[in-house]
């Protein structure tokens, strides 16, 4: 997709601090980290969101989920990490290319109940 920021990163048109790259997937540091570690993991395929995924993407999505642990550990997150997938306007998704946020460090509970 011509105007997609993450497709531009895949093509190398926009620089990024890559931490992983293979034929299918790319991971890089988020430009505005919300914690000590904040990695964005994307498929190289332009897929807008989980709402556009279907059975043909089962292996790709599985590969992405399984990679999160490896990338988190490489970033020193041995005690655990948070994965976030924002989907569509209702999910607060800003970049319309499916991605998993891998977040960790000294993070608070995601939902405060008080
Ligand atoms: P979303 O809100 O769509 O789930 O998250 C998009 C994420 O992409 C945000 O955390 C934002 O900081 C990150 N982001 C947006 N543009 C760029 C960019 O050009 N480079 C990098 N590395 N991250 C970006
Ligand atoms: Zn894209």
Task: Give a brief outline of the structure.
With 114 residues, the chain is an alpha+beta fold. The protein has a single domain, classed as HIT family, subunit A.
Give a structural overview.
This protein has 114 residues and is an alpha+beta fold. It has one domain: HIT family, subunit A. It is 21% helix and 21% strand. It is built from 2 helices and 5 strands, in the order αβββαββ. The protein has helices at residues 5-11, 58-74; strands at residues 18-21, 25-29, 37-43, 82-84, 100-104. It has a 5-stranded antiparallel β-sheet, covered by helices on one side. It is globular. It binds guanosine-5'-monophosphate and zinc ion. Residues 1, 4, 6-7, 46, 97 line the site of zinc ion.
